[in-house]
Design a protein that fits this description.
The chain has 1275 residues and is mainly β. Helices cover 0% and strands 49% of the residues. The chain has 1 helix and 103 strands. This is Integrin-like protein.
Length: 1275
């Protein structure tokens, strides 16, 4: 029942790394069938490999085999930046290959570095191949965030508050940054800031998409229908009998697109079904599948409606017969079967096999459950409380695998890797409140490990899987509830998303890299209305901000402000009202002079209030200065400072303090007490008149430093004599140190000195340019710097301008110098103008090349010329052109002649503005063509002869000359009348051209002799008789002839060897270029080759072999004939033939009798081979003397070996079964007998023992088995 998309899986790689099994194609295995054609996959990326975030990138994979496009199969696009294999965790999308051998994916990528690779999955015909990985760098972009103050609470005193603040943004990676509480009433004063480095995931509230345009929405499919790289979706309504397309803007909003007709639809799939690279839509109707082919712009056209059977309820897509073309598998709810529809690659489908199911099969998925490289199927049987697994063999056939028993009636199922073992697992939802998790074993069987319950708030209809929290483990959505997986197949409830619909589709609909949810929801009661809801995943931070101190009395509007991070944009909340409190202040007091003064001195007090400013708030009011209880005076507070000067302090100690009265925003405060001691000494009075102004660059001297007093002492000046001061008002200071320090205090004084600016003369530098050009950049020089200064002390530049324009004639123009942006701290300026000289422009006039025919008079005119470097669109009226070649008698031999230009006049140009250069051209005199009034006649030739054999006669021309064939060596290709080129060559070849025309030449046929020869072996069928031709000319072969001659003979298959006649007559033979003479040929019948090979034989050494006359093979007999007997002889057939002489030749000869006639054959006799093998032998113990024997005494044992046809050689070993296992060995003599001596050891018990003997064997005999036992008595 779930929608599936096999075209574009995700909208960003950040989401791709987090989705786990959104499509069952995650577990598609590459085809593993052998003997496949190798392929090559290449990858192109546009618009480039360095882009900004949310840029739509186009990834184009091209698949070829032997240089030709591969037009079927699928390509996986993967981000290999943090992956080893192109598989589930790195998969961006899986795209069907188009008819042109391409697969295209258009998506944005998340910020960061990526390494993109395209992998062709292969088919039963074509092998797997992968492109090289290409790096793509995506610069970060800002994701919108939202900041909200959830609640605020006052502490009840001092303007103190706490606030609960929430910030939402991109879900991955975790949000970071800082949160500040800003007082908007007080110039956004920052009351407090908190930094954070982590966030949790959540979802936006459900938002409806589409409204009443949908009707009763039930099932959805996701894909990029208009090719803009942004995810769209289609939703179908069973009640409304339609499908509605919605086009996404990549930011989470949708607009209504195409409306498609349907018939009680139960499911929908988006995939490229006709291999054109555009996403199509398949709608599962009651008894058909409606195939709508996409136009790539969000519109569709109905292609076909293949029948599925009765009540198609669920369907899935995959390549079930491994031909690289998408197929469908449909569950038929009433017929209780799974029906295959096999794709033809053009958007049409044909019925495949059907397979039995349980009762009421519904949802169905596909994956490679047993890892054999072929796609399998899994589906639920609602009425049986089971799920079934069908195992595919890659040819479109399936066999029943495992059957899963369930405790509730199942509805939907999904595929995912829930325990991270690389094997597809199943999640199966029940009709109410939950789902069961089954882990795959990799062989098509499953084991239940856990269940999840949605409670009473949600049903279990819709299911989907993805890695929602980016921990590398597959999570699960069931009935609007998100469950987080732990990587072992177990899940915990995390979040109620909402939207308890019949289906769930996942995609990144707003481009932030997080998996978002599309859920159709409708009422189960009439009128069954509903909507499609969108819920966007987001990052979330919740912060308790405390304490917040609101400074300043009254009500303040406070907002929360988020700073943003590398991915998330800054945002701020709406304002909340908080009541502030007065600001605490601190007052400090300083005195000048500090703590002590002389009687009569002026003492200055400075009160400094802190803080001096809080946002836009400034402390204002009065500061009161007191000496104990006595008020010395008051002063207004200005920028946090208040001053008071007094000369009334008496000799002794004074306790001074300052007090700030406060205002509405700032509290009152009093400074600590400062003790000032006044001594009874006299401070001299300094007399210092204001100096006369000086000019910058003049050093200070006694003229300015001339302070005086009536008391003896010394003066110290600041700055000192010799100092050069900057221009402007400068302060000169002096300190007087009295000689009598007991009576007098030191004294100081200041005066103001005005330093005037020095003058710099700015002179515009002279410049030059040609007429018509733009003015050059003007420059200036400077004079008058003092004090070692250079142009580096200047700021800006003077204005340098001229009235001359591009059309100004040659002459001299003023360059006016003025201030412009020029400035200097210590200088003023005077200006001197410069001069711009406009000079003549170099103009080139070139005569045009011309031509005429010999004997003509040419008028040159005045306009056949070109010019370069004319300015301002000016023109030249005419130029005088002269040439000696213009006359009638100018010959070709003197060509080319110079055309000389001069005296340009007229037009709009002015001669005085240009320096003119004239360039000559060439006048070419071409040859004239004579007139031929009569062309000569040509004599006849024979086919194969060249035109040089034809004689030309007659011919008349307007000038003297000769006639000849243009190509005298040419051989006409066809007998008959041929038109050939004849050329007239004038006697005056210098001034006249050659002239050519065609004349007819008669070509007679050439004679050709026709004969034939043939050869065959006796008994063979006659070969096809072929003619031979003699005297072809002109490189011809029999291909130049039509038809064939009649060739006849009396020879048959049974004709005996000899030479016979082939009669040659005309038959159908004809030719355009040849006449024929017929000569009879000969047919030779040769003896047939016959090989007679003696059969290979084998015999045992010592036996005689009868050779006979029939053990042979005859190869090459004809007409079913036979050979009755062959004489066979071999030196190895007698009994004396040894193994050592083997093998022996079997020589055949004298073939005879049977049905063959030896005169018809050339016989070749081939020897056979006779192999002599070792014979078996028998050992017999013949005697034991004496018997009995005594222990420790010897006795003799006799033995023989048979057969003795070839006398055996070697030894016989005899073993007795006494306790010592006594043995002896003897050698065979020429009669095949022998003896050996055996001595039982002393102490051998007095018993009867058994002896056995074994022969060692030789080249002619095999070793014998142990002989029959012979008893021997030991006493």
């Amino acid at each position: 029942m779930f929608a599936q998309s096999f075209s574009v899986r995700f909208s960003s790689s950040r989401l791709a790394l987090r989705l786990s099994g959104l499509l069952c194609s995650c577990f598609l295995s590459a085809s593993v069938w052998a003997a496949k054609t190798p392929t090559t996959t290449t990858l192109g990326i546009a618009p480039g490999t360095s882009v900004s975030e949310r840029t739509i990138l186009t990834f184009s994979a091209t698949v070829t085999a032997g240089g030709s496009p591969v037009s079927s199969g699928q390509v996986k696009f993967c981000d290999m930046e943090n992956a080893t294999f192109c598989e589930e965790g790195s998969l961006l999308a899986k795209v069907w290959v188009t008819r042109t051998g391409t697969a295209t994916l258009r998506i944005p990528l998340a910020y960061g570095s990526h390494k993109i690779q395209a992998v062709f999955q292969g088919t039963s015909t074509y092998g797997v191949s992968a492109s090289s990985a290409q790096r793509v760098d995506v610069a970060s972009g800002a994701v919108s965030t939202a900041t909200r103050i959830i609640s605020s609470q006052s502490y009840g005193y001092g303007g103190l508050y706490q606030a609960q603040v929430a910030v939402t943004g991109a879900p991955i990676p975790p949000m970071s940054g800082s949160l500040s509480m800003l007082d908007t009433t007080n110039a956004n004063y920052n009351l407090v800031s908190i930094s954070f480095t982590d966030s949790t995931i959540g979802f936006t509230p459900l938002a409806s998409v589409g409204g009443t345009a949908i009707g009763q929405p039930q099932f959805t499919a996701v894909g990029d229908f208009n090719g803009d790289g942004k995810l769209d979706f289609v939703v179908v309504s069973n009640l409304a009998n339609k499908a509605q397309v919605f086009l996404g803007d990549g930011l989470g909003s949708f607009t209504q697109g195409a409306t498609l007709a349907a018939d009680s639809p139960n499911a929908v799939i988006a995939a490229d079904l006709n291999g054109d690279g555009k996403l199509d839509i398949a709608i599962l109707n009651l008894e058909t599948i409606a195939i709508y082919l996409g136009n790539g712009d969000g519109t569709f056209r109905l292609k076909s409606s293949p029948s599925t059977g009765d009540w198609g309820y669920g369907f899935t897509i995959g390549d079930f017969n491994d031909d690289g073309i998408p197929d469908f598998a449909v569950t038929e709810n009433y017929l209780n079967v799974v029906q295959l529809l096999l794709g033809n690659g053009d958007g049409t489908f044909r019925l495949g096999a059907s397979f039995p199911s349980g009762n009421n099969p519904e949802d169905i998925v596909t994956a490679d459950f047993n890892h054999d490289g072929a796609m399998d199927l899994a589906f639920v049987n609602q009425m049986d409380y089971t799920a079934s697994v069908l195992l595919g063999d890659g040819t479109g056939n399936f066999t029943l695998g495992s059957t899963i028993s369930l405790s509730d009636s199942p509805y939907t199922l999904v595929v995912g890797d829930f325990n991270n073992d690389g094997i597809p697992d199943l999640g199966i939802s029940a009709l109410v409140q939950g789902a069961s998790i089954f882990l795959g074993a990799g062989d098509g069987s499953f084991t239940q490990v856990s269940t999840v319950s949605c409670g009473s708030s949600a049903n279990g209809y819709g299911m989907a899987v993805a890695d929602f929290n980016a921990d590398g483990k597959t999570d699960l959505v069931v009935g609007g509830t998100l469950f987080l997986g732990d990587g072992t197949g177990n899940f915990s409830v995390f979040h109620y998303v909402g939207g308890n619909g019949s289906a769930v589709s996942i995609g990144d609909f707003n481009g932030d890299g997080g998996p978002d949810l599309i859920t159709p929801v409708y009422s189960s009661n009439s009128p069954y209305s509903g909507n499609v809801y969108l819920s966007l995943e987001q990052g979330s931070v919740s912060l308790l901000v405390a304490p917040i101190r609101v400074l300043g009395a009254g009500t303040h509007n406070v907002m929360a402000s988020y700073s943003g991070d590398a991915l998330n944009a800054a945002s701020h909340s709406s304002i909340v009202a908080m009541t502030g409190a007065q600001i605490n202040t601190t007052l400090l007091l300083n005195a000048f002079p500090e703590k002590s003064a002389n009687l009569g001195d002026t003492v200055q007090f400075l009160a400094t209030l802190s803080p001096q400013t809080v946002g836009a708030y400034l402390p204002t009011g009065i500061v009161t200065f007191s000496d104990g209880a006595t008020v010395l005076g008051t002063s207004p507070l200005v920028q946090g400072l208040a001053t008071l000067s007094t000369t009334t302090l008496t000799t002794g100690s004074h306790s001074i303090k300052a007090a700030f009265a406060g205002n509405s925003n700032f509290k009152a405060s009093t400074s600590p007490i400062m003790v000032v001691t006044v001594a009874g000494t006299i401070t001299p009075v300094i007399t210092w008149a204001t100096p006369v102004p000086i000019t910058y660059g003049t050093p200070l001297s006694a003229t300015q430093l001339n302070a005086s007093t009536t008391v003896p002492g010394t003066f110290v000046y600041t700055p000192a004599a010799g100092t050069v001061l900057a221009s402007g008002a400068q302060t000169l200071s002096v300190t007087f140190n009295p000689t009598d320090t007991t009576t007098y205090n030191p004294a100081s004084a200041t005066v103001q000195l005005t330093v005037n600016k020095a003058t710099i003369t700015v002179t515009a530098n002279n410049a030059t340019r040609p007429y018509g050009g733009a003015n050059p950049s003007f420059t200036a020089s400077y004079a008058g710097f003092v004090n070692g200064d250079t142009v580096s002390v200047l700021i800006g530049a003077p204005s340098l301008a001229s009235s001359a324009t591009a059309t100004s004639p040659v002459g001299s123009y003023v360059i006016t110098a003025s201030l412009g942006t020029l400035a200097a701290t210590n200088y003023s300026f005077t200006f001197v103008n410069g001069s711009l000289s406009v000079t003549q422009r170099a103009l080139t006039i070139t005569a045009n090349n011309q031509s005429k025919t010999y004997g003509q008079t040419l008028t040159l005119g005045t306009t056949a010329f070109t010019s370069s470097e004319l300015q301002n669109g000016e023109t030249i009226g005419g130029v005088t052109l002269t040439s000696a070649g213009a006359a009638t008698g100018a010959s070709v031999a003197g060509s080319p002649y110079s055309i000389t230009p001069s005296a340009a006049t007229g037009g709009t140009f002015t001669t005085s503005n240009y320096s003119i250069t004239y360039v000559n051209a060439s006048l070419t005199v071409n040859k004239a063509t004579p007139t031929v009034s009569i062309w000569p006649a040509a004599g006849a030739i024979t086919y194969g002869q060249s035109l040089a054999s034809s004689v030309l006669s007659g011919g008349t021309a307007s000038v003297g000359g000769t006639f000849g064939f243009t190509t005298p060596g040419y051989i006409p290709p066809v007998a008959g009348t041929n038109a050939q080129s004849v050329t007239f060559t004038p006697a005056d070849a210098v001034d006249y051209n050659l002239v050519s025309a065609t004349v007819n030449v008669l070509v007679n046929k050439a004679p050709l002799t026709v004969s034939a020869t043939a050869t065959k072996y006796y008994g063979d069928a006659n070969p096809t008789l072929t003619p031979t031709y003699t005297a072809f000319v002109n490189g011809d072969t029999s291909a130049a002839l039509s038809g064939s001659p009649n060739l006849a003979t009396t020879v048959t298959q049974t004709t005996t060897p000899g030479t016979y006649t082939i009669t040659v007559t005309v038959g159908t033979l004809s030719s355009t270029n040849y006449s024929f003479t017929y000569v009879n040929g000969s047919f030779t019948v040769a003896k047939a080759p016959l090989a007679i090979t003696a059969n290979d034989r084998t015999k045992t050494a010592g036996t005689t072999l009868t050779m006979g006359t029939t053990l042979f093979t005859a190869t090459g007999l004809k007409l079913g004939q036979t050979v009755g007997a062959v004489t066979l002889t071999s030196t190895g057939s007698g009994a004396s033939a040894t193994v050592a002489g083997s093998p022996y030749a079997i020589v055949p000869s004298n073939a005879r009798t049977g049905t063959f006639n030896i005169n018809n054959y050339a016989v070749n006799y081939v020897n056979g081979s006779l192999a002599v093998t070792q014979a078996t032998s028998t050992t017999t113990l013949t005697s034991d003397t004496p018997d009995p024997s005594r222990a420790g005494s010897p006795f003799t044992v006799g033995f023989s070996v048979t057969p003795a046809t070839l006398v055996p050689t070697g030894t016989v070993t005899i073993v007795m079964d006494d306790p010592a296992a006594t043995t002896c060995t003897g050698t065979l003599n020429a009669t095949g007998t022998g003896t050996c001596v055996m001595t039982p050891p002393v102490g051998t018990p007095n018993l009867v023992y058994t002896m056995t003997g074994t022969y060692s064997g030789d080249s002619n005999y095999l070793p014998s088995a142990p002989s029959a036992g012979r008893t021997h008595h030991v006493n």
